[in-house]
Automatic annotation (TrEMBL):
<dbReference type="InterPro" id="IPR005515">
    <property type="entry name" value="VOMI"/>
</dbReference>
<protein>
    <recommendedName>
        <fullName>Vitelline membrane outer layer protein 1 homolog</fullName>
    </recommendedName>
</protein>
<dbReference type="Pfam" id="PF03762">
    <property type="entry name" value="VOMI"/>
</dbReference>
<dbReference type="GO" id="GO:0005615">
    <property type="term" value="C:extracellular space"/>
</dbReference>
<dbReference type="InterPro" id="IPR036706">
    <property type="entry name" value="VOMI_sf"/>
</dbReference>
Amino acid sequence: MNHSHERGSHKSFKTGAALILTVCGVRMWRLLSAVATLAVLSLGVCGEKVFLQRAGTAFNGRKYRSVLDVTNGERFGSWTWPEMCPENFFVVGFSVRVESKQYGGDDTALNGIRLICSKDENRNFLYYVESHTGHFGEWSHPQYCPSGVLTSFQLRVEPHQGPFGDDTAVNNIKFRCSSNPMLEAPGMSWGEYGHWSQDCLGGGICGIETKMEEYQLGLDDSSLNDVRFFCCDKHQE
């Protein structure tokens, strides 16, 4: 790959996350604290009120049917903690934290995945979950299923580059909606896509857990190495 570098190259530690929302021509900036359990955002969208709140671990008692995973995740780091949508909320959209190409510096590619949870596909009151995220890159604009919920995923992963290469691990992700459209994140292009996960038939994705390599103090960072999602049943009214 063309993004190899010396493993001792330095990368500055970036903290915090800025959420940028452009609504009806007005750019609104909100700082989301990385240590807050709940981050609440209320804003006007063309006359409508949208409420977005981080669920964190508050709803981790929610029961799920199965775990959706893939086989091409990478080796570095550890599984962190799950975060679940509230009861009767399912994932309808997502955004990703991605670091652009560093041109000779240390590349990390995909650093985080943020899932947006909705009840009955109501887009006015939303929660989000993201588990542990890396420190590098910017959050993308959210992408949503035109209808339905997210039910399966596919990871683009660069394999281990050896002792002197630059590991990026997870580069991108695709999701499939229950209404059948496929959504691809604006990630990076190193590596290849693996097989699709199992499909959460009759339900939808309702939580996330990430496998992260912690900050390497100036050595080679790979950040996000793998992810798994939780599948919950939809209760019939």
